[in-house]
Design goal:
five-stranded mixed sheet; 192 residues; mainly beta; six-stranded antiparallel sheet; globular
């Protein structure tokens, strides 16, 4: 009888131990949304590479809420053509967010707007993606060409939309619906 008790106790402990296992069904890690702290939209005059205008925005909390930059108006040359590039950075985590946006081109889209008499086209080598559920490719809007009109004042707005539901990259400055803003920033500008 003693032998049976001694045998049963270890077996009971072994059964109890075996029933406690690691939880293999733990949820996948959640990727937090990218933090965008620094944005620069760089306009370089196609006819004069010393004529560079840079629209910048910096925010430690992220550049998400619609805001108007409080810096003095930025001055462009009237009737000039500018090649435009974008840089996006997360200074908190020391990351180049632009690389992530290009990697996720199917989930991002730039929309621009202006009241200052510019026209814009997306360049041929601009990254191309396709929204989920769509067969129509779109140009992201990282590389664009802007042509300034006559002397005037106005604004330029840049929006980066994450997961829009519909987009149009072949009309004007682009259009989108749905999704969330990763960037929504406006600057005062002067053409002279």
């Amino acid at each position: 009888m003693k032998t049976i008790k001694l045998f049963i106790l270890p077996m009971l402990a072994l059964a109890l131990f075996a029933s406690c296992s690691d939880d293999d069904d733990s949820p996948a890690p959640v990727n937090p949304p990218e933090l965008i702290t620094d944005v620069a939209i760089i306009f370089t005059n196609a006819a004069d590479d010393t004529d560079v205008v840079t629209l910048t925005a910096v925010s430690a909390d992220g550049i998400v809420e619609p805001t108007l930059n409080d810096e003095p108006p930025l001055v462009f040359t009237a009737n000039a053509t500018y090649n435009v590039t974008v840089t996006i950075f997360d200074n908190v985590n020391d990351e180049n967010i632009l690389e992530e946006i290009v990697d996720e081109v199917d989930e991002h889209f730039f929309v621009y707007a202006t009241t200052a008499g510019f026209t814009m086209v997306r360049d041929a080598d601009d990254p191309v993606g396709t929204l989920e559920g769509s067969s129509t490719p779109h140009k992201l809007g990282l590389e664009t060409t802007w042509t300034a009109g006559a002397a005037t004042t106005g604004t330029i707005t840049v929006q980066l939309i994450h997961e829009p539901t519909s987009i149009a990259s072949d009309v004007g400055f682009g259009a989108a619906s749905g999704g969330e803003f990763d960037i929504n920033q406006t600057w005062d500008v002067v053409l002279q």
